[in-house]
């Protein structure tokens, strides 16, 4: 892949990225969330088209304009989320979309033989007569690999293949990767786990902010140097001044448990304090917030607000206890897009706008919404504008307005600035600092390291649903956090 | 209404409305003015009453992205139960009418609650649970009535079914008499509009249809709201069952099991309520029912063959929703 470039509205996702993959080697692709790994691989597999650059296979330039074309060229993707049809058997899945046909009917014997051949090549023995929904996660992944092989893929991309596997299964996977290599395939291996790179990779390429930063032989690239290359030295964004938290403990979480994502998590947050939760996607950070907010109900553990325990069986209890949860995905969880600004802002506190005659007082709703629009500088033509028609940053402010309307003491922010422009980011930071100054306790999940470091008094690094480390703002560095989050350091 | 401001609101219900005004003008000319005679207007309103009331209940359900297929059978069941009840109690006059209505509403509401239970507890599709209720309620009404209409012994219901509302007043104003069921329909439309547009419950109905997860995370008791919409639909079916019983002086297991279900859904959809949920209005449903009623009436006035009437009705329903969709795309562009 040569000089690949790709932009999305407002973001330069890939900037002049080149990488080379030889046959019979494993190239590890590493980088922080949002570094451009997925975008690059989507371009390779035909799911996205590059704005610039060329792709060459065996030295000849190729046009990859659809997933079908990529498949035809021998490119196979194994995604983190499997693409199997659960109700079909392994052979049926392997043949899916390319069924051998005999006289207009599917040739079941050929389907089975082809699957058997692919599995034999991998040295695998899987039950062929049960639907894949009956197979374990590890077995399903092997079916995915067999599916790619059956299509004669010579370039195989694996996106975090070990994320869902246990120790022994990982060993097995590494053996299979070795076998694929020996057969002459080239493998691009995306991983967050530094510890497995020396075992599986021949070379390592680090992506950062849409650029290929460095490529080295895996044996000459120690984990701490990889981490350093991933994080780099970036210009600090402008964050507002954070006052030292002075107040008493507002939120206390004790032994919170919701398996498998949250394991025995305990922490406390003081009035005026912003606590950052760092870690990789899937580490359990969002799940911790969801359990506190009642979006998922915790199996055990205690949550105290201002020292008194509260029982949270659903979002309603959390709201009543003064907990506001600003979700990561505005469109799926935060907003009703077909409703207007006013209706979204008042949705969680509608009882306060109801008169004695049980009717909603729209005039009062409108004036409260107008106040929020002014206070938060929400760029909307008015209270009756459909939220669907607003920009991402403005939508995020509508979500904030919804939760600022109540008297919440605890604010849980999940990726508060994802996908919004720089100006709106600065405004959201300002609102968070003001909330803290007014005595709120804030917990913030952020995958953006400068943001986590710039906006939090303390940072907890989450790994495997547990608190792996705690840093004070003064001691935290990007290198240390990434090292712990990826397991490169304990 | 939800969103879009006042203009958007009128444009939204305007889909059926505009179509309908154009239709009226054409038909009135073609029928040499008989169409817009007051007596004919009242006739149309009387004809649409039953489907419109069913459509009002259905509107609540459809805005939450659900569907209630059981309403036709519930009309039959509640009519039969109400007639059996009225024949078995020693009441008369207003007490008999009120008690019978309460029984019908209780049966319809309970059936709606049963419809909702698997939907909210097990997340089963309402298409299936209400389809099951359709069959069960129909079977039950045949069992209870032994397959024959249950004739009312009392004549106290006659005024409710076929009487007129304040005939002295309309006579004095030289207007045609307004049947009492039409008054029921107008009252239900008014009440339902207020509930849907001005109460927390109504707002939550829109929110759940628009984004159920966002609604849940805002602390809304989604299960309770969803249960209530099926109860409302069941109650509307019960009121129709009661009115039909009063109209025919009997409760029949076959009443309501014809075109009622599909025509009430058609009224809702033609009225601009989205089957995907989150969008819709009661007044739109009224216009939708009116459009269908006007169409039938006009075709009768113009002497259109009754088989052909069905073909035309289907084509007009399709045309109305296609126009609505095109208008929506134009507005959101």
Which key features would you list for this structure?
heterodimer; A: 490 residues; alpha/beta; Rossmann fold; 2 domains; six-stranded mixed beta sheet; globular; B: 333 residues; mainly alpha; ABC transporter involved in vitamin B12 uptake, BtuC; two-stranded antiparallel ribbon; two-stranded antiparallel sheet; disordered N terminus
Any overview of this molecule?
The complex is a heterodimer of chains A (490) and B (333). By secondary structure, chain A is an alpha/beta fold. Chain A contains 17 helices and 22 strands. In chain A, strand 11 and strand 12 form a beta hairpin. In chain A, helix 4 (108-121) crosses helix 5 and helix 8 (223-231) crosses helix 17 (478-486). The two termini of chain A are 36 Å apart. Chain B is an all-alpha fold. Chain B has 14 helices and four strands. Chain B has helices spanning 5-30, 38-63, 71-88, 93-122, 126-145, 158-162, 167-172, 180-198, 200-210, 212-217, 222-248, 260-270, 282-301, 306-332, and strands at residues 150-151, 164-165, 178-179, 250-251. Chain B has a two-stranded antiparallel sheet with strand order 1-4. Chain B has a two-stranded antiparallel sheet with strand order 2-3. Chain B is globular, with a radius of gyration of 20 Å.
CATH topology of chain B: ABC transporter involved in vitamin B12 uptake, BtuC
**Category from helices, strands and their pairing of chain A:** alpha/beta
Distance between the termini of chain A: 36 Å
Quote the beta fraction of chain A.
Answer: 15-25%
Largest interface comes to: A-B, 36 and 28 residues
Count of strand segments of chain B: 4
Q: Low-confidence runs of chain A (pLDDT<50, min 5 residues)?
A: none
């Amino acid at each position: 892949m040569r000089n690949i470039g790709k932009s999305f509205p407002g973001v330069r996702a890939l900037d002049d990225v080149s990488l080379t993959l030889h046959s019979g080697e494993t190239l590890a692709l590493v980088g922080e969330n949002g570094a451009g790994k997925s975008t690059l691989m989507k371009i390779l597999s035909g799911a996205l088209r590059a704005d610039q650059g060329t792709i060459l296979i065996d030295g000849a330039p190729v046009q990859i304009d659809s997933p079908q074309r990529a498949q035809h060229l021998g490119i196979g993707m194994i995604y983190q989320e499997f693409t199997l049809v659960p109700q079909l058997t392994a052979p049926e899945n392997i043949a899916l979309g390319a069924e051998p046909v005999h006289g207009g009917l599917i040739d079941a014997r050929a389907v089975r033989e082809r699957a058997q051949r692919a599995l034999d090549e991998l040295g695998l023995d899987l039950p062929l007569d049960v639907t894949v929904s009956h197979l374990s996660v590890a077995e399903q992944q092997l079916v995915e690999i067999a599916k790619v092989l059956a299509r004669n893929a010579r370039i195989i991309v694996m996106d975090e293949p070990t994320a869902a596997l246990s120790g022994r299964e990982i060993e097995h996977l590494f053996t299979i990767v070795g076998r694929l290599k020996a057969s002459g395939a080239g493998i691009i291996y995306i991983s967050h786990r530094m510890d497995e790179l020396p075992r599986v990779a021949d070379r390592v390429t680090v992506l950062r902010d849409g650029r290929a930063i460095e490529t080295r032989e895996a044996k000459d690239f120690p984990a701490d140097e990889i981490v350093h290359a991933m994080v780099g030295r970036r210009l600090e964004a402008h964050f507002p001044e954070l006052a030292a938290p002075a107040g008493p403990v507002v939120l206390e979480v004790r032994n919170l448990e919701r398996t498998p994502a949250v394991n025995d998590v305990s922490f406390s947050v003081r009035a005026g304090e912003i606590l950052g939760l760092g870690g990789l996607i899937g580490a359990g950070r969002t799940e911790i917030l969801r359990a506190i907010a009642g979006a998922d109900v915790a199996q055990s553990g205690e949550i105290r607000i201002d020292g008194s325990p509260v029982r949270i069986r659903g979002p309603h209890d959390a709201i009543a206890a003064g907990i506001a949860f600003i979700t990561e995905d505005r469109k799926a969880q935060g907003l009703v897009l077909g409703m207007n600004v006013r209706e979204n802002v008042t949705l969680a506190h509608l009882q306060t706008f109801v008169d004695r005659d049980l009717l909603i007082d729209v005039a009062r709703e409108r004036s409260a919404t107008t106040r929020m629009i002014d206070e938060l500088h929400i760029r909307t033509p008015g209270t009756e504008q459909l939220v669907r028609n607003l920009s991402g940053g403005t939508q995020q402010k509508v979500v904030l307005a919804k939760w600022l309307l109540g008297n919440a003491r605890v604010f849980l922010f999940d990726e508060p600035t994802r996908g919004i422009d720089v100006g709106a980011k600065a405004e959201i930071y300002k609102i968070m600092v003001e909330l803290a100054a007014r005595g709120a306790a804030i917990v913030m999940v952020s995958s953006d390291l400068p943001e986590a470091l710039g906006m939090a008094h303390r940072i907890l690094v989450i790994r495997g649903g547990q608190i792996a480390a705690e840093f004070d703002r003064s001691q935290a560095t990007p290198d240390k956090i990434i090292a712990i989050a990826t397991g490169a350091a304990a | 209404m939800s969103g879009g401001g006042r203009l958007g609101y009128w444009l939204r219900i305007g889909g059926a409305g505009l179509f309908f005004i154009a239709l009226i003008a054409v038909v009135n000319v073609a029928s040499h003015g008989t169409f817009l005679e007051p007596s004919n207007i009242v006739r149309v309103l009387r004809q649409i009453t039953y489907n419109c009331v069913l459509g009002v209940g259905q509107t609540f359900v459809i805005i939450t992205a659900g569907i209630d297929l059981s309403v036709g059978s519930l009309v039959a069941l509640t009519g039969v139960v109400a007639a059996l009840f009225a024949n078995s109690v020693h009441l008369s006059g207003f007490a008999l009418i009120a008690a019978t209505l309460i029984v019908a509403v209780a049966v319809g509401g309970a059936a709606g609650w049963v419809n909702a239970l698997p939907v909210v507890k097990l997340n089963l599709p309402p298409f299936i649970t209400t389809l099951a209720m359709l069959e069960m309620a129909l079977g039950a009404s045949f069992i209870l009535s032994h397959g024959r209409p249950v004739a009312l012994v009392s004549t106290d219901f006659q005024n409710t079914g076929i009487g007129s509302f304040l005939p002295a007043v309309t006579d004095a104003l030289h207007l045609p008499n307004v049947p009492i069921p039409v008054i029921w329909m107008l009252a239900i439309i008014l009440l339902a509009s207020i509930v849907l547009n001005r109460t927390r419950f109504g707002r939550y109905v829109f929110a759940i249809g628009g984004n159920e997860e966002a609604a849940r995370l805002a602390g809304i008791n989604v299960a309770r709201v969803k249960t209530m919409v099926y109860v409302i639909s069941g109650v509307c079916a019960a009121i129709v069952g009661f009115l039909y019983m009063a109209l025919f002086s009997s409760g029949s297991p076959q009443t309501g099991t014809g075109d009622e279900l599909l025509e009430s859904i058609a009224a809702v959809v033609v009225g601009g309520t989205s089957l995907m949920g989150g969008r819709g209005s009661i007044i739109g449903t009224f216009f939708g029912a009116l459009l269908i009623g006007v169409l039938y009436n006009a075709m009768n006035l113009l002497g259109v063959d009754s088989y052909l009437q069905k073909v035309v009705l289907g084509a007009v329903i399709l045309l109305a929703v296609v126009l609505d969709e095109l208008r929506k795309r134009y507005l959101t562009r």
